[in-house]
Amino acid sequence: MHFDHAGIATEDARELATLYEDLFGLEAVHEEEFDGMRVVFLECGESYLELLEPLEDGTIARYLESNGAGIHHLALATDDIEGALERAREHDVTLIDEEPRPGAWGHEVAFLHPKDTGGILVEFVEH
């Protein structure tokens, strides 16, 4: 596994993308509307910043309402998401997703509950 991206909840993904492009010299390499969100990926070395803007009520809208803008999750890339989930089960980590599901950019994803991962929502993403 390796670090893939940090998911960042924001009220305006395009505005934040423009700031990060200008401020940090990053490049927006992918944008889509997915699962009630606008998602913008900015390339940052070998990893990404994933900007998550709610377009309707849902997980990110509720996160913003409760916590404000900021880091929502950290994602680890794997070429074997089923194996990664099995390893998490073996370590008694609570799975939010028992099975992989479709994620942004056409990848399969699965989330681990933050109560068992040091307070961090962790996403597995299969490439």
Automatic annotation (TrEMBL):
Keyword Isomerase assigned to the entry: answer is: yes
> Per the UniProt entry, what are the Gene Ontology biological process annotations, in alphabetical order?
L-methylmalonyl-CoA metabolic process
Which Pfam families does this UniProt record tie to the protein? Glyoxalase
The EC class name is isomerase
Family matches, as PROSITE patterns: VOC
Q: Where is the VOC domain?
A: 2-127
User: What Enzyme Commission number(s) appear in the record?
Assistant: 5.1.99.1
Check the record and name the InterPro entries matching this protein. Answer: Glyas_Bleomycin-R_OHBP_Dase (IPR029068), Glyas_Fos-R_dOase_dom (IPR004360), MeMalonyl-CoA_epimerase (IPR017515), MMCE/EMCE_epimerase (IPR051785), VOC_core (IPR037523)
Signal peptide position in this chain? none
Q: Name one GO molecular function term.
A: metal ion binding
Q: Which UniProt keywords apply?
A: Isomerase, Metal-binding
Q: Which family does it belong to?
A: Belongs to the methylmalonyl-CoA epimerase family.
**Database matches in NCBIfam families:** metmalonyl_epim (TIGR03081)
Q: What is this protein called?
A: Methylmalonyl-CoA epimerase
Q: Which organism is it from?
A: Natronorubrum bangense
What gene, per UniProt, encodes this protein? mce
